[in-house]
Amino acid sequence: MPNDQNPRGLYFLADLANAARAGAGDEEMRRILREHRAPERYLAAEPAEIRPAAARIADILEIDEPDAAAHAINSLLADYPARPTLVQFPGRPWSMHSRPPEDADPEYWLLAKAALALGLWLSDRGRCAWGRCAAADCGRFFIDTGRRQPQKYCGTTCATRTRVAAHRQRR
Fold first, then answer.
1. Zinc finger CGNR domain: which residues (predicted)?
2. Which of 22, 42, 20 is nearest to 33 (CA)?
3. For the chain, which end, N or C, has fewer CB atoms within 10 Å of the first or last residue's CB respectively?
4. Position 8 pLDDT exceeds 70
5. Using an 8 Å Cβ cutoff, are 131 and 152 in contact?
6. Whole-model pTM?
């Protein structure tokens, strides 16, 4: 699984939240778990066990006010303690990961991971460095990795399409 502090772990959460909001099927949910290298025991889980957690993550990604986000993340940490631990993968620096109890179900694993990752990201950035795309026809969740101006769009395609539409409307 990607490092909880590294944006790649946060991209996993955004992908799951987007899938949950889009009503993704079982195969799409499994694809996301495989793509983001979920632990083997969670790859075998039924997507129905993952969907409620993905929806709860989406609810947090909707929050754009730091105090409200911190409260929601703290609630998640209270319900699903992350039990952080330092891990070093070959050729990589030490990084913080969540380690759920050995008998944790997929929902517990995912929400503990989300609580730690989002909490670290909020504390590192000092703001909700995530959001929903501002493009009128998109609304996908994204992780804001920039350091300057807060991100408004999920990617360059939506940003460009919005700017072109605004330019055409002004003409």
1. 131-171
2. 42
3. C
4. no
5. yes
6. 0.85
